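Known limitations

Structure tokens in this collection are predictions and should be treated as such. Users comparing against experimental data should check residue numbering before alignment. To illustrate the layout, the record for Aldehyde dehydrogenase is reproduced below. The input appears on top and the generated tokens appear beneath it.
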Amino acid sequence: MQIASLAEVGVTNVSTSDTIDSTFAALQRAQLARRGSFTLEARIAQLDQLRDSIKRHESNIIAACAADFRKPAPEVKLTELLPVLQEIRHTKKHLRKWMRPKRVAASVGVLGTKSYVRPEPKGVCLIIAPWNYPLNLALGPLVSALAAGNGAIIKPSEMTPHTSKVIANIVAETFPPDLVSVIEGDAAVAQKLLALPFDHIFFTGSPAVGKLVMEAAAKNLSSVTLELGGKSPTIVGPDANIKRAARNIVWGKFANNGQTCIAPDHVFVHVNIADQFNEALKTEIGRVYGKTPEAQKSTADYCRIVNRRHFQRVSNLIDDAKSKGARVFEGGVTDAEENFIAPTLISNVSSDMDISREELFGPILPVIEFDDIDLVIKKINDNPKPLALYIFDKKESFATDIIERTSSGAVGVNLTVVHFLHPGLPFGGVNNSGIGAAHGEYGFRAFSHEKALMEDKHSLMHLLFPPYTAWVRRLIEAAVRILG
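Generated tokens:
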């Protein structure tokens, strides 16, 4: 979306590199000037203003998400507004504690000193937000950046232009431009931004693009938080509550039309309950979204694929699976005019299908039967570490065994996706699914430099300084022997 007037919407026009450079330079100058003066009270005041602005723009946010990909209003409130507002509330409650220097007890070797870890702002940060949760994943990281005392540039996704404009309006009316600015544009704009020496880069997106972001950051030795994705497996054990599992999986999978980085990507279900579970999935889809494709198209509760390119990508995944022997036992109906893909369940999945290799990021759920959990665990461990892993079973030992033998960013037991809403938990992946963590204190620390501070009170360290006389050498030998 082209912005006609900077004064009208308060967003930087990024037609030239000079504009990007000048915006960045202004934030750098202001960040240096704010050193020592961006107090707890000042940070909380900025968070209060952000909260108030989000609430004033609630109807605009809902309308923008509907215009971009027909996101239902209740889903916007639950997945876009609530996480950010909750993050602000949680941060305000705990920020004084997070900002306080933490005393570190002296070790024997440095007795007589006083030590602290003092969090300080990293500086000017870049937040590159994705299109699937365009407001949440732009303003959520901003809360952490401001709490830690930083300035920031937000680069929203060009794929959700209406929401991008609302974000720009919120930021423009809330913050001085040398504290927070929005820069809109496509991938070329992101590349120009990534060439700048930001003090920290927070990126949410695919592992493939995350590697490019990390490569660009390395040229300036910028630290990064990478919130990526991958294929998050779900395991439904032989003693699972079938109805509860189906309810949670259908919601976690098909909310936002499956365009969620922590959505269940595929389900392993024990062979003893597979038939019952598949019927429960179909029943739950019908209850929530309608029993026919026509009903699902007409309901206001079902989102759409974000654009034609992604619609075609997801459609191709279904076609490829069918051509290689998969069975679509629910859904599979598409409408290119509306970027509509019905909630789709697929069985008879094989490893040569694209749905077995690619992150689906759409309303497709492969269901795979198993009778040996060891083989399931091996398959999970043979693939890149997922962002989330979900386990359904009444037996705690079943879940514990899987948790201990696998690695993932997070685990949900008898639930899906909900862990994202807990501001006290770290949200992040492992290796291919992400680097670093967000939310709450973990987000504050991601945007902070933890500075070591030591003060000499009455230590005897000077006794070990040169010249290395025989006496000093004996002291050093004793220190190594006693303390080493």
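For this record: The two ends are 63 Å apart (CA to CA). The CA atoms of residues 268 and 368 lie 5 Å apart. Please report discrepancies through the issue tracker.
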